[in-house]
Amino acid sequence: MTEEKTPATSAGQIAPKFNPPPKARKKGKKGKIIKTIITLVVLAAILGGGGYGLWYFVLRPEPVEQGEIYAVPAEIGSIKSTADGSGSAKAKESAAITLTEGGEVRELFVAAGDRVTAGQPLYTIYSETAEKAVTDAQEKVNTLNQELAELQADVGDLTVRAPFSGKLINVQEFSADQQVSEGTQIATLVNDKKLKLSLYFSYGYENSIAVGQSATVSLTSMMQDYTGTVEKINKVSYITPEGAVHFEVVVVFDNPGTLTEGMEASASIHLADGSVAYPYAAGQIAFYESQAVLTKASGPVRTANLLNYANVKAGDVLLTLGSDTIDDAIRAKQQEISTAQEALNTARQALSNFNATAPIDGVITACTLTEGAQVKSGDTVIIISNTTTMLVNITVDDLNISFIKPGDTVDLDWNGTTYVGTVTSIDMNKAESGNGMTNFPVTLTVDNADGSLIEGAWLNYSFVTSQSDECVMIPGSAVKNVTDKDGNACTVVFVQAEEKPDEALELNLPEPQEGQKRTYPTEEEGYYPVPVETGISDNQNAEIKSGLEAGQTVFVNYTVTDSSSGY
Q1: 130 HSE (CA, 13 A, CB side)
Q2: Do 453 and 393 reside in the same domain of the chain?
Q3: Which range, of 37-51, 235-249, 343-357, averages the lowest pLDDT?
Q4: How far apart are CA 382 and CA 96, in angstroms?
């Protein structure tokens, strides 16, 4: 058996503490972990470098070229702002002839495409039914008119008028709504402007007294004479108590205004031989004309203008009676006549359609007739359109309707052909609203003497809403809407200048993302944002009212250099 010995140590040395060596299995595991970590680090470095290389050589976007600045100088010119839209065309006039009864086409004078004038014969169709309809309708209208005339005559009888000028006497009193019968005497009307005197002369003067001879009228009570005239001679046989036969002579003379009926008077007649004839006896003065005024109808009193001794003129209303029955009958009859007249007009129009003439000037756009053919009620046989003047119906929104009025002109375009429309009407009552906007119908008339514009054509329109002459203008795309550094909205143009203008703004512009182009120029490029006041604009240019002068160069945009970018 071998004995193990511990080696000896030299003097002064301390023997080290004995540590047993680690177990072989544990030492191998720790080394493996370290090795794994190192491997991972190396692999990450390799992958990182490879990814960067992949991004750099494959995925990294290529630098975008900004492009060159496109700038133009501000100019002096004129600019117009317009409103645009579209509308359809139709003939100003059109007429369709439709039959109301059937018949046979006897003659046809026109064909589709013919131009006709108003009144020109179109065709002849025989229809016994249509002719009878006119005759019957006319007879009915005549009968109703006669009945109305009779009713109106009855109404006339309700009003009592003075038959001649004169004075009222023996006036009767009437109260409102008092019922009065036909034939009631309401007064006596006399003509007291003249007076007459009836006297009897001996037949010994039969051949000496004639109508027209002068006479002297004497009123014994007034001891005054008046000049009169023989107006009438009546060969009667008036026998005096003495047994003499006399004839009647009527003498007329003017009333000075102080004489009246019943006064005693006599008259002497101046004969041709210079002698004077005297009557058998004096007589009494009478009114020249006297008539009892009577009612011609019955009814309640509505008005009365009756005063004793009142002077009236011929036709003055003296008394008015009422009659609800007659008034209602007249209204009903008038309605009947109106209905019958409409039926007559319809019948006449129907008959005229069988012997038609063109109602308007125009072109026959449709004709379904052939000679000898039978037609039936309801057939529309001819259509005429007057296309020398066309109507174009457009709509204009509420933003632009105030810029046009009747009489204004509007530019029109149809397939490259231009026309001029004149505003004839704007219907403010038929506006239609939708999508936050109100549209108003506007009608234009267009001269179409050459017939180039057809019905149904769809035209584009435009009219000037505002115009500025001798103004500073630049391309509309040169005007930019941005925000300043304080967040305030601003309208600017980028002006080229050697140094920053005093009015230039500090803007809050977003930085372009990687791979994108800048939208606005920089100060390094020599352009500065200057605030401006804009005016009107059109499709290309904008008016600058302040902030910019003619000749100053303004930035418009960057020119396209990278076709792949789409700019």
Answers
A1: 23
A2: yes
A3: 37-51
A4: 6
